[in-house]
Amino acid sequence: MKKMKVRNIILIVILIIIVALNAVIVYSTVSEKVDKKTTKQEEKKPDIVEEKEKRMSLVAVGDALIHSGVYYDANIGNGNYDFSHMFTDITPIIENYDLRYYNQETIIGGKNLGISNYPLFNSPDEIGSDLVKAGFNMVSLANNHALDKGETGILHSVEFWKNQGVITSGQNSSFEDRESKIKVYEQNGIKYAFIAYTDTTNGINVPYGKDYLINVYSAEQAKKDIESIKDKVDVIIVSMHWGEEYTHEPNETQKEEAKYLSSLGVNLIIGSHAHVIQPVDYVGDTLVIYSLGNFISAQWTLGLENIIGLMVGMDIVVKDDKVTFKNVDYKLLYTYCTTGYRNFKVIPFSNLNDGILNNYKSVEQEYLAIVNRKVN
Q1: What is the mean pLDDT of each run of 10 residues along the chain (376 residues)?
Q2: Considering just the CA atoms, what is the radius of gyration of the chain in Å?
Q3: What angle do the packed helices 150-162 and 125-134 form, to 10 degrees?
Q4: What is the pLDDT of residue 1?
Q5: Is 256 helix (H, G, I), strand (E, B) or coil?
Q6: What class is the 55-371 domain?
Q7: I need a surface site. Which of 95, 203, 227, 242 has the fewest CB within 10 A?
Q8: Among candidates 161, 190, 192, which has minimal Cα distance to 177?
Q9: Could you give the CA distance from residue 98 to residue 94 in angstroms, rounded to a whole number?
Q10: What is the helix (H) or strand (E) element at residue 269, kind and residue range?
Q11: C-alpha angle 158/161/163, rounded to 5°?
Q12: Rounded distance, CA 311 to CA 333, Å?
């Protein structure tokens, strides 16, 4: 009897040992499988891909202010004009940029209205087409001379620019046309919008009920326009015709409008109207070019400052929903002509010598100091 009890105890112990060993083996097998599964899952886990930066380049020049001296020099007879020789030094500089901006200061209102000088300008179609041939592809049409030839002039201008294959803003033939021009463009994977405004129309009233003809700036209109587009684009570019003529200092209105536009989400403000150079500065993250001065004009009698313009080049970089500006570069331009307002040519300072403009290197330093002056 005792022997049977001992035997049973031994069997129970053996069974316990066997069960324990099996448990250890099962646990080890399961753990190994879990470890392998985890390892495989970790191997399959995708790497976190850092967003690549996107960039597009932009270059901007100032006002094409076509006085009679300029268009007489371009006259080739039979009512035709050729301005192309005036810009041959500019094309090699701008052709490597994606976006190439200028302000068409004088209305292209149609030759039937008569080509005319200050105070009510009307410029030949050829100035626009020749500047497009020179390489420009983004044009501001909102300025104080837009209404110089009334509604007829604007309607001709709108139709003319519609056939040039470039981006424009500022003049419109209807409310529908105005709305359709606030749209999304794309360059190098960057979605952007371009809107042009003017603060003034030289006291010429917009025809009643036709406010669409010219983009006159107001805080309310700017807010409406920008909020309609900002969630659809990466970059917002605004052209502002603002400030006081013939002063190198931005006024308080310019500063206030720059701050307001920045608060709305505008990334780049390109300014004109002063006909002389003003500083380039930041308002928060917004790059503000207060005035590019004249690109081409016949304002020689007003002094050297009116025939020196600014060219600003840059890379606009988008990464992680943030817009920054790199390689911001300033070049000065000189409008050359000979006695009697002949042989007009826009010449970069890099192509000048003392025979063309005496002491040009000192002049260059003087004007670049204006560009670099802090405003904000």
Answers
A1: 51 53 47 49 55 94 98 97 98 98 98 97 98 98 98 98 97 96 96 98 96 98 97 98 98 98 98 98 98 97 96 97 97 96 97 97 97 93
A2: 33
A3: 30
A4: 47
A5: helix
A6: alpha beta
A7: 203
A8: 161
A9: 9
A10: strand 268-272
A11: 115
A12: 7
